[in-house]
Write the structure tokens for this entry.
Amino acid sequence: MAAPAQSTSETNTPASQPVPVLDGAAGQCSVEFNVTTPDGKPAEAAKVKVHIAYRFGGFHKLDLEASTNSDGKVKFTGLPAKVRRSQLEFEATKGQLTGTTTVDPATECQAKRDIKLAEKTAAGGLALLLVIE
């Protein structure tokens, strides 16, 4: 007599890691990122950084950097609503890939952004060729 077939509900996908959270302790705003590679896959261990100048005259400065989890996610909390420039520019990098996005915390205090990484391009550099005869 054959044994009854058993159904398994297990999947071979690993459990999601908790989203890394970096607290700047400078305000009530936050932004959560989903970083992907050029082919749309999560960018694990991509570094996301931002430079923030805030309060009167922008004399208070804050540099934050955090890495994404295996799902390509990271969250920054404790960001100020008023910054020296109206927008914060976040840069994500992984190896030779890079991507940027901006957030205006005054108009979008709880933001979510996707950053799609792309190959770095040479921008704005001058090449000097010296020929000695």
Notes: The beta strands are 21-23, 29-36, 47-54, 60-67, 73-79, 88-94, 97-103, 110-116, 118-119. The mean pLDDT is 85. The longest strand covers residues 29-36. Residues 27 and 80 are 4 Å apart (CA to CA).
